[in-house]
Amino acid sequence: MAEQRLKVGDPAPDFAATTDTGDTIRLSDFRGKRVILYFYPKDDTSGCTTQACGFRNAYSQIEEKNAVVLGVSPDGVKSHQKFKTKHNLPFTLLVDEDHAIAEAYGVWVEKSMYGKKYWGIERSHFVIDENGIIVEAAVKVKPEESVKRAVAALG
User: Alpha-carbon torsion 101, 96, 83, 50, what sign?
Assistant: First the structure.
């Protein structure tokens, strides 16, 4: 499924997605701003909470650099709302129940746990410039590392 890996210099695939408020947004709505688009497997699990809270803690610094954060997982609107409220997340979470966005970014992959194979999100982030070009791509990244690298890529 996830054959192509996006890399620095590639145009970021546009998409439309439902947000944690039930609205629909497109990546292209953010042209003129920089975007940290990060993918995580599941709301309110330990690594995903670490990553989300890291972006929350760095959010004022991210905003100062004319950037926004968009978190993407296969969870639905209600799950995202609970996760966002519980951890006071100041950024938008996107619903990717059909994993179309994850597939477009090459991060919907076959995984293995306890000998069982399944498909899921590979923790990753992409930093996208004001013109929609990827300037940082980190796939299979640790939660804390993701935040540090993404923020550093903003300059």
Answer: negative
Residue with tokens 């701003």: 33
Q: Do 128 and 35 contact (CB within 8 A), yes or no?
A: yes
Q: What is the mean pLDDT of the chain?
A: 95
Residue 92, number of CB atoms within 10 A of its CB: 18
Give, as one character, the DSSP assignment of residue 29. G
Q: Does some domain include residue 81? A: yes
Q: What letter does residue 33 receive in the DSSP assignment?
A: S
On whether the CB atoms of residues 87 and 56 are closer than 8 A, the answer is yes
- Backbone φ and ψ of 114, nearest 5°: 50, 40
Reported as a single tens digit per residue, the pLDDT across 84-120 is 999 999 999 999 999 999 999 999 999 988 999 999 9
Number of domains within the chain? 1
Residue 69, in any domain of the structure: yes
Is residue 117 included in any domain, yes or no?
yes
Please write the tens of the pLDDT for every residue from 111-145: 988 999 999 999 999 999 999 999 999 999 999 99
**Active-site annotation holds for 53:** no
Q: Is residue 52 part of a domain?
A: yes
Which candidate in 37, 48, 52, 94 is catalytic?
48
Residue 93 belongs to domain spanning? 16-153
